[in-house]
Amino acid sequence: MILSHQINEQGFIAAVRWTEPFMLGLAAFHLCLLVFIIITRKRFSIQLYTWLALLLLVCLAQPLNHLCIRYQKVLTTQPYFTTNGLFISTVFSAPLLVMALIIVINFLVGAVGMMVVVMRGQLREQQKLKKKQQQQASGSIQTSHTKAKKTKAGCTTPNTSSDNNDKKKKTD
């Protein structure tokens, strides 16, 4: 089964005249599109519209095949286009689908990168909050220790309103 598939593949490749202007133009189209995809890989909106255009072109492959059948003598020297659409699927749609897959992989890599950035930010915020809580907790412990040391050493503590009330009651 695998051997017959390889023979059919080799027969297909050998049967096509790759130097025809139509085939060279199609190869140049695919190459330019691939370069465009690579250049715009950081631009999400352009990539999105490119991906949608690629899928639209793949969906339009059947009507395009019928159009190519009609004008086959103008386009190519060999009768490549048939009603089953094997040729257009192989040389037109398959590369477009590969490029659409490249864009999807690029989207996934970007999403993972964004998740890493968000998670790092969350961890930094959690660390800042924990550090602030520790500083507040150690600050309140230190202030209570310093108050206790001052009262033991005979230092006077600041008068509070309740202390003032107690002194007034004693004098009355």
Nutshell version of this structure?
This protein is mainly alpha-helical. The chain has helices spanning 2-15, 21-39, 44-59, 61-70, 72-75, 86-152, 161-171.
Describe the structure.
The protein is mainly alpha-helical and 172 residues long. The protein contains seven helices and no strands. The longest helix has 67 residues. The protein is rod-shaped, with a radius of gyration of 38 Å. It starts with a helix and ends with a helix.
Features of the shown structure:
mainly alpha, 172 residues, 82% helix, rod-shaped
Shape: rod-shaped
Structural class: mainly alpha
Strand residues, percent: under 5%
User: Total strand count, please?
Assistant: 0
Residue stretches low in confidence (pLDDT < 50, at least 5 long) are none
Instruction: Please provide the ordered H/E string of secondary-structure elements.
Output: HHHHHHH
DSSP helix fraction = over 70%
Number of helices: 7
- Taking the alpha carbons of the first and last residues, their distance comes to 114 Å
Radius of gyration over alpha carbons?
38 Å
Return the average pLDDT rounded to an integer: 82
Biggest beta sheet summary = none
